[in-house]
Structure formats: structure tokens, C-alpha cells
Amino acid sequence: MNDNISGWNTWLAAFDGWTDVSISEVHGLMTGLMTACNAPDEPVWAKVFEELSFAPLPDAALTLLTEEAEDIVFQLKDKDDAYAYMPLVPDDEHDLYERVMALKQWANGFMTGFGITDCGLSGDENEMLSDLAKIGAIRLEDDEDFEGGEESYLHIFEFARMVPVSFATRQRKPVKDIALIAGLAIDAKTTKELQAEGRLPKPMPPVVDVMNQNRPS
User: Which of 112, 138, 174, 176 sits a CA distance of 20 to 30 A from 148?
Assistant: First the structure.
């Protein structure tokens, strides 16, 4: 699948100038949320990113994210369609290093996205997340060969893409009901704004840091 068909180029264009995390990590985060939640509208997506201490998304990125989330939920709800799910990574014309790093970022995004849904895990799901965390912890220098080469990459890619397929059978809930933003009005102040006003005596670490504290990049 090339970059135009996969949507890679569309995501690059929509997120142009927004550099908090990669588009692969955003796609993973969105997918993690959508395995347990219904697709929210743009204001709720904006609130999620604010509460995760990300910079505001460009309008084009916010619209794309909202539309893609709806498509992902629709896809994952259907057993046959779910197997066609693909993480957002560059195509095989890109260097293997770039593709491995994108998959690593997607895995970390999924861990964060699913982590903030507050959902319980079965034993099998916990094991899958433990293995996905190993992908998220891959360390590779840009001049270093990935052990196992293309064959190993295809193996971990196939495993990663099946995680949301396996997780998507649970009953979904509204994103606004997750603990991260539950009880907040759409115009409510963010954690960073409350800290700046001195209304939160102790800094609250971003969820992304909490999710990754034992999984160094």
C-alpha cells in the first residue's frame, strides 16, 4: 500500500507544522481510544489533546482526526472489516529504519490512547499490551540495521495491527465519560490553565509521561 492510498500523505499535510508527536503516534492514540469509545466530535477531540498537554491541533488535523476516528470505529465494529485495519506508517519505499520508528511511535500512541480509557484487561489482552510495549521500547540508531530486517518488521507490524482488532469487541462508551475529561464542560479550563492560576497545588504529570515512564523511547 503506497503513501497516497494509506493516507500517510494526507495526514502529513493535515498535521503540517504541528510537531508535538508524530502522525503515527497520533494515529495510534486515536486507535487506542476508538477500541473502547465511540467517536467524539471535534470539540471533544480538542479537549482530549488539551488534557494530554499537547499543543492545539490545526483545523485540518482536527477535522481529519474526527473523520478518521468515525471510520476506525465503524471498521473495528465489523469482524470482517476489522481485519483490514492498518496502523499509519510509511510505505515500503521508505527506509526500514523510518518504518520501524513509525511503528514504535504508533505502538506508544496506542498504549496511551487505550490507557486513558480506564478499561479493564483480560489476561490475554494484558499479554498483548506487554508485547506491544516491547515494540514501543525499540531502540535503533539511524545508521543501525534492524535485527531480522524486513522479515522481522513485517512480523511485528502484523502483530501490532491485530491488537486493535482483538481489543475492539468490548462495549464502547463516550470519550467524554473517561476520567481524563469526565465532568468537564467543553469550555472548561485545562489542567495547565488551572496550574497557572495556582488552583492545583501540585503539578499533575501528563498522562503520556505516566504511560511511558517504564518504557523509555
Answer: 112
Amino acid identity, position 70:
E
- pLDDT tens-digit profile of 155-175? 999 999 999 999 888 889 999
**Whose CA is closest to 32, among 100, 87, 83, 89?**
87
- The structure's pTM equals 0.81
Sign of CA dihedral 80, 168, 101, 19: positive
CA nearest to 95, candidates 17, 149, 148, 20: 149
Q: Is 23 exposed, middle or buried (0-12, 13-18, 19+ CB in 10 A)?
A: buried
Closest by alpha carbon to 53, among 176, 174, 195?
195
Q: Please report where in the chains the cell 490545526 appears, as a residue.
A: 58
Question: Which residues make Cβ contacts (< 8 Å) with residue 41, sequence separation at least 6?
Answer: 66
Distance CA 122, CA 63 (A): 34
